[in-house]
Structure formats: structure tokens, C-alpha cells
Amino acid sequence: MIVTIDGPAGSGKSSVAKIVAERLSAAFLDSGAMYRAVTLAAMDEGTNLEDQAALLAVLEGKDFNFDITGGRMVVSIDGIDATESIRRLDVTENVKYIARAPMIRSKLVEIQRQFAREHEIIVTEGRDLGTVVFPDAKFKFFLVADPAERARRRHAELAEKGTDIDIAKLEEDIRLRDASDIEREHSPLLKADDAIEIDTTPLDLPGVVEKILFYVSRKA
Fold first, then answer.
1. What distance in Å separates the CA atoms of residue 8 and residue 174, rounded to the nearest whole number?
2. CA distances from 44 to 56, 69, 82, 91 (A)
3. Cα 132–138–139 angle (5° rounding)?
4. How many angstroms separate the CA atoms of 105 and 32, rounded?
5. What does the pLDDT read at residue 220?
6. Hey, which residues does 90 pair with through a beta bridge?
7. How far apart are CA 220 and CA 217, in angstroms?
8. Which of 2, 60, 93, 170 has a beta carbon 3.0–4.6 Å from 151's, enabling a disulfide?
9. 3-state helix/strand/coil string of the chain
10. Which of 153, 140, 160 has the alpha carbon at shortest distance from 203?
11. What is the pLDDT along the chain (220 residues), one digit of tens a residue?
């Protein structure tokens, strides 16, 4: 059984997906972590992020490992734990180059589908899970939220980690990321025709989780 949760940056996909996976005793596939891992490796190598062939060489030349430990995805690159490093702000700002590289996306889709074959139940979140990666998923959700609210959430998340950044810049970055995700030629951010849309703007985290679990329990 596959549950996909798609949506734009900051809509709450990752936090929601982790809890839903825990509640369903499912494996959590963090597709974004895979794109971030390639981004981090390319940055560390000094790779031209607009050179798709060079990015592919990084993906194929490094040993990327994605394991589920304690309900979360643990990422390692060449045996070194990169779970926290892939969340750095500079990685977030540069992941768009990896996301819009079709050769990289194709390879990562293969990895994601292989991951799914190895687990009985998975919950996964991203931008094209319900449309491209798992078009036949039994349950599909699409989360949306007002950009200002998404910026507020991101600001609070960074503040907890000791990073202070202007909230107006965060909102602008989110709007630019949305445009990049929606307008890219390959695997753009789209709501699947059969996905259930949930506006998370007025909802807290438990509220979104319960909505998703309600729909799953009705059709499971």
C-alpha cells in the first residue's frame, strides 16, 4: 500500500508524512532527502549545478544510502552520515538545480520505486509522487498552504535550530521555489487528478494527520 503526500515547499508534507507513517506502521520515504543528498554531494565536489552530465557523474560516483532507522530516513554519502547536513539552508537554496535535471530525476525515481518494492506499506512525500513516481498509489493527498503561513512555519523551524533569517526573505524564497517547481519542464509540481487536496493553513499538525488517516481508514 502506498500513500503519497505531495505539495509545495513548506506546506507541512514532511512532518505530516512522518507521523502518518508512524501511525500506519509504514516505512517513510522522504523523496526530498534524496534530491538534497545529491545536491550536497555536488556542492561538496564543487560541481557546476547547471551541468546535468556532471551532476549525473556525482550521483553515479558516490555511494548514497537511504535507510529507515527509528521511523526516520537516515542518509549517508560514502559512508558518512549526512542526515542533518542535507537540511542546511544553502542546500535548500540549490536543490532546484537537481530537481529540474531530468536525468537525475529519472535515476532517483528508480531508487524510490525500488524502495517501495522492499516495504509492504510506505508513506512518501514530495512534489511528483502521485503524478509520476507512484501514479497507481492507493491513496494520494496534495497539501497546500498560504505562502505567508509557510514562511512563518519555516522561520519557527529555523529559529529552533538557532538560525535567524528574515521572514520576508523566506516568503520570497518560497514563492520563487513554487514558480520553479510549477514551471519546470520535467515532473512539475501538479495535483494528481485523483488526489485529495487539504489546505493546511488553518490546521495544526495533528489536524492534518487526522484528516489523512480518516480518508485512509474509510477506503483501506
1. 9
2. 15, 25, 12, 10
3. 85
4. 11
5. 66
6. none
7. 5
8. 170
9. CEEEEECCCCCCHHHHHHHHHHHCCCEEEEHHHHHHHHHHHHHHCCCCCCCHHHHHHHHHHCCEEEEEECCEEEEEECCEECCCHHHCHHHHHHHHHHHCCHHHHHHHHHHHHHHHHCCCCEEEEECCHHHHHCCCCCEEEEEECCHHHHHHHHHHHHHHCCCCCCHHHHHHHHHHHHHHHHHCCCCCCCCCCCCEEEECCCCCHHHHHHHHHHHHHHHC
10. 153
11. 999 999 998 888 988 999 999 999 999 999 889 999 999 999 999 999 999 999 999 999 999 999 888 767 899 999 999 999 999 989 988 998 998 899 999 999 999 999 999 999 999 999 899 999 999 999 999 999 999 999 998 898 888 888 888 999 999 989 988 888 888 877 788 899 999 999 999 999 999 999 999 999 987 6
For residue 92, what is its C-alpha cell?
535548500
Which domains, from first to last, does the chain contain?
Answer: 2-207 (3.40.50.300)
Q: Which three cell numbers stand for residue 69?
A: 532507522
Which cell numbers in the block locate residue 141?
493527498
Give the CA-trace dihedral at 160, 21, 112, 54, to 10 degrees: 0
- Burial readout 156-191 (b: 16 or more C-beta within 10 A, e: otherwise): eebeeeeeeeebeebbebbeebbebbeebeebbbbb
Residue 134's alpha-carbon distances to 46, 79, 160, in angstroms, are 33, 29, 34
